Amino acid sequence: MSARKRKRSAEGTSARARHVGVLARDTIVAVSTAPGRGAIAVVRLSGTAAERICRRVVSPGRGWPLVPRQATRCAIHACDDRHTPIDDGLVTVFPAPGSYTGETVVELGTHGGAYVPLAVCAALVEAGARAARPGEFTERAVLNGKLDLLRAEAIADLIEARSAAAHRMALRQLSGALSARLGALREAVLELEALLAYEIDFPEEDAGQLPRARVTASSEAVVAQLDALLATVPAAILGREGATVVLAGPPNAGKSSLLNALVGEARVIVSEAPGTTRDAVEVLVDHDPWPLLLVDTAGLRESADPLERLGVEVSERYLGRAHAVIACAESVPGLAATAAAIATRTAAPIVGALTKRDLAPDSGVMVGARARSGAVQGLPFPVVAVSAVRGDGLEALRAQVMAALAGPAGTPDPDTPMVTRARHRSALTTARDEMLAFRKEWAAGALPAPVAATHVRAARTALDELIGVVDVQDVFARVFSTFCVGK
After folding, report:
1. What is the signed CA dihedral for 407, 411, 417, 419, rounded to 10 degrees?
2. What dihedral angle (degrees, nearest 10) is formed by the CA atoms of 226, 231, 235, 241?
3. Which are the contacts of 127, defined by CB distance < 8 A and separation ≥ 6?
4. What are phi and psi of 368, to 5 degrees?
5. Most buried residue, 150, 288, 330, 382, by CB count within 10 Å?
């Protein structure tokens, strides 16, 4: 390892050590299970004094030390002279360093509900613990080397996952796949820095000047890796937030009935009276490979009714941010008119749905699995005939919507870790911009190597912040502020 690399590593280690030293003086406590009525709750302590503090509120105190990782039934009481009873629960000790945080951790399994867990937590604070900040347990795990920053963020993503896609991405990141990919990328940037440093520091060596083509190839390889990671962003956004699919069309075109049929239950009021839907209704449906945020909107038409006009304005806003639109109409000419109105409000791909096929005569559009994927009577988008009552064409419609979404987002690759957070996206974009600037200046040869190398250094700094190598306190404060308390 070069002296420069050793210095950077020592600086990062020193910053971590200072932060760990501050944390080591405190033993923290929090209720780690969700608040509200429940059968059980978990109160968690972490720190060097965890066992000593716990003994003050747990009987029999003389039973310590408990067998590590073995739940022991104990009486839990207040930290007072009378040992006022609070609960009868289970206590488990996880000695350092073999715990989640790397410190001694004690978990108290109590009865659930609103009062008992908080009373236990209050007793432990009275005994000497400090209430934990959001994400502080996981922060300590990172600082003690049990997790890296990216895997810590994956834990938060796993907790917040609302769909199979979000769950799958979080597990992939938790496995360390993204950490390994970014670690290799950072090493490639460091190697490029080393090449440039050789030319800057030893220009008169017998080996001669560094071949410019080698630096160019190295920088291009780094840019290609950055591009590949950033290319996963659209699919990752769909996986986390769901693809917004707007059902749009004139009043009484069967949009609400179709949404209910796609969801599988009555979520929207259906009426034969036109204009019943005045506001947008969102329903998140888990689907593979992405969840779908289905949105029922007010009918698109001119109206003198102020409330209906407001509903149409809401519809237009949803159309503006849609990933795909299901255009609903009862006839092919009506579908053409509806699609034309939609196209003025969004650039999202359109899938046509000829609704109420159980009431209308045969339109010539195939139904169900045989639905056409090409144009129908000159329409430049796929059309599926559907019946919300009988369920005809629903699977074919879903398939066409997913095909429309696959265009801009691509198909998720299970072997490629995805960039799931805005923080990741920002750092990688900065690194890419700096590398592109370096490549341009290096190719032109207009600047001395030390000046051009500042772009490579800036790219490496962006990756350092992403991985958590530098600026520990600032980065950690931003990351862990979004965690739930007790994790």
Report:
1. 20
2. 60
3. 53, 54, 56, 57, 79
4. 70, -140
5. 150
Rounded distance between C-alpha atoms, residue 219 and residue 441, angstroms: 12
pTM of model > 0.85 = no
DSSP bridge partners of 40: 111
Q: How far apart are the first and last CA of the chain?
A: 36
CB 248 within 8 A of CB 342: yes
pLDDT in tens, the chain (487 residues): 444 444 444 444 444 544 555 555 799 999 999 888 889 999 999 999 999 999 999 987 656 778 899 999 999 999 888 889 999 999 999 999 999 999 999 999 999 999 999 999 999 999 999 999 999 999 999 999 999 999 999 999 999 888 888 898 899 999 999 999 999 999 999 888 887 876 655 555 544 455 678 888 999 999 999 999 998 888 888 888 888 999 988 888 888 888 888 887 655 544 444 444 446 788 888 887 888 888 888 766 555 555 556 766 777 888 888 899 999 988 888 899 988 888 888 889 999 999 887 666 555 544 443 344 445 556 888 999 998 888 889 999 999 998 888 876 666 666 678 898 999 999 999 999 999 999 988 888 777 777 888 999 999 999 998 887 754 455 566 667 766 777 7
C-alpha closest to that of 425 among 171, 237, 219: 237
Residue 481 φ then ψ, to 5°: -65, -20
CA-derived radius of gyration, the chain: 30
Nearest CA-CA partner of 472 in 171, 21, 3: 21
Task: Phi first, then psi: give them for residue 283, nearest 5 degrees.
Answer: -140, 120
HEC string of 238-282 equals HHHHCEEEEEECCCCCCHHHHHHHHHCCCCCCCCCCCCCCCCCEE
338-375 core/surface letters (b: 16 or more CB in 10 A; e: else): bbebbbebbebbbbbbbbbbeeeeebebbbbeebbeee
Give which of 343, 341, 355 is closest to 389, Cα–Cα.
355
In 3D space, the residue among 261, 213, 255 whose CA is nearest the CA of residue 391 turns out to be 261
CA distance 207 to 226: 32
What domains does the chain contain, in order, with CATH numbers?
A: 3-147 (3.30.1360.120), 174-232+417-467 (1.20.120.430), 248-285+292-409 (3.40.50.300)
